[in-house]
Write a structure and sequence with these properties.
The chain is mainly alpha-helical. The chain is 62% helix and 6% strand. A hairpin with a 5-residue loop joins β1 and β2. The model has no long low-confidence stretch (mean pLDDT 95).
């Protein structure tokens, strides 16, 4: 499998897992603001990183306040945007260095492939935090293991 296909697959998994979390939160009958804030941040960070990759000014807050409906729409939008971005990459683009400023105003340079991996791991990290918060509240979090997504046919 080439890098483009690999990352398209991983971002399909990420989208599925994020949707599962939103479905679990929405179906829980509880608002759990901390869980929603974690999920909203995860999606906002995806937008921020995509804007860095495309060298355009940041348009979203890193920790925005959002409703579950707004977060859901943003999740759908980011899935489409990541597919669009990854689909246009050539094999050599994955090794390209991107210069950007982080949220502290520090200048950095990172490879495209490293940024893509970071985005995916960042989402997984915050989904884990969201699951922990839901369990602590006595609720059932989403089952978002990668292999489960494959078994369910979402991740091909």
């Amino acid at each position: 499998m080439n890098k483009k296909d690999h990352f398209l697959r991983m971002f399909d998994y990420d989208y599925w897992a994020n949707r599962q979390c939103l479905t679990a939160l929405g179906g829980s009958g509880s608002t759990l603001p901390k869980v929603l804030r974690l999920l909203t941040h995860s999606v906002a960070a995806q937008k921020l990183w995509l804007e860095r990759l495309e060298q355009i000014p940041q348009t979203a807050a890193v920790w925005p306040n959002s409703t579950i409906e707004e977060c859901s729409r943003s999740t759908d939008e980011m899935s489409s945007e990541w597919k669009r971005y990854i689909d246009k990459l050539s094999p050599s683009d994955f090794d390209k260095e991107i210069d950007y400023y982080n949220s502290k105003g520090e200048r950095w340079s990172s490879r495209v492939e490293d940024i893509l991996i970071h985005v995916l791991m960042h989402s997984a990290y915050h989904r884990g935090q969201a699951a922990l918060e839901m369990r602590a509240a006595g609720l059932q979090p989403a089952y978002t293991d990668f292999i489960h997504g494959v078994r369910q046919g979402w991740v091909k």
